[in-house]
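2024-03-11 09:14:02 DEBUG pipeline.ingest accepted 1 chain
2024-03-11 09:14:02 DEBUG pipeline.ingest length=369
2024-03-11 09:14:03 DEBUG pipeline.predict start
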Amino acid sequence: MVKKKHLRRRTLLSLGILTAGSVLTWAPLPGVSHTVVVVAGTELRQVLEILKPRFEQQQPGIQLELHFQGSQELANNYLDDTFPDFQPTILIPANQEILEKLAQDWRARENTEPFFSEPQPIAATLMVGIAWPERGQVLFPQGRFAWERVMQAMQARQWAAIGGPAAWGSFDFRMTDPLRSNSGQLTLALWSRQVLGQELTLSNLNSPPVTELIRLLKQSVYRPPRSTDILLEEFISQGPNEGDVAVVYESIALSRWSQAQASQGQGYRIYYFSPTVTTVSTAAIARRRVSPGLARAAQTFIAFLLAPEQQQVFAQQGFRPMTNLDLSQVPASPWTQGIPGVEPSPQVQRWPMPKAEVLEELKKQWQRL
């Protein structure tokens, strides 16, 4: 036991030395002012807006400019150089796989590296379902999310056909647009793997069960939003009459739960999938039109995000931090607010993130149908 503790101290000390060395290597030059343009997935909006003034106070020579888009959309815009009126310094999509696919496409097109350095994980979250309490009790009487029940409800179309009051009218499922949003792609992937009962491959994605599932979703989901943040804003503001069940990130569901309680007089319930996937927001320093000095300023911001004080803010906004924090002990975190269904350590099976080519094929199927 003593040896294990000693080894752990040595490991932490080594990590500290490496982190300090990285900060010194990337430290911006004194007396030089930089504006770091951060383009992040919309699920990071609240936490980055909280951290922006803190960082600028600590680093007066660096100003942050924040923009938010659906994760797939921001990757497409960087690859095609189609951001409207700004040039990104840092890209932070919802998961590393989006960056890996972006890098692959960039190398094929430009024959260069797209990023200044290896992308760095910032914070993690899970894919979850949410439902208004009364609707969830009818749809999931066992208290557990069931994809097959959601499919039955979409096929039946009316609540009365699945045991709900006729006054509830039509059943409305919500998800984001897979062509623009990472959470929409992961919704397709999780659901497709459930109906197939096996790991997704390029050879089985065109099988009838997956095709019929995507066809049903396209018939049932009206104008899917381009980002998870917009989806949840609409889900909350429109209430049960326009959205009964949705698939979103756990982080944004937790951070906006109090908003739902205030505007609708009730909060929604969180449902953990099993299996589910963990998606890790990952930061990369762009290379296009970014000078070495600006890249050093960008790395300073990434190192700031990974510091324990900021990781605690991520936890307070519903994310699962990269540091070893006990979520139930983090002050003012959503895991201490009695949100229905929430669990700091859900006992669920976790599948690996689908491969980039699998997500790409699912997007193509969505387009074709």
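2024-03-11 09:14:41 DEBUG pipeline.report The beta strands are 34-41, 62-69, 90-92, 120-131, 173-174, 245-249, 269-272, 276-285, 320-321, 350-351.
2024-03-11 09:14:41 DEBUG pipeline.predict end
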